[in-house]
Request: fold
Amino acid sequence: MPKDVAKALAACKVRDDYDARPAYQRNDYLAWIARAKLPATRAGRIEQMLSELERGGVYMRMKHAPSKKPR
Reply:
């Protein structure tokens, strides 16, 4: 895992949420972030991942019921 992504997960306190996701989702997020060509794109993708992990119930802007958090 890239250091900037690990730091972002820790800073937003969503590392446990990330670790709870299936391996394919964790890998998808990291590969998607790594494919960004511009720093702004990379930052936006990291922000989207963090937001989805914090919110729960969402994966790549799609509903993901298994990760839904109780409100």
The mean pLDDT is 94. The CA atoms of residues 13 and 59 lie 18 Å apart.
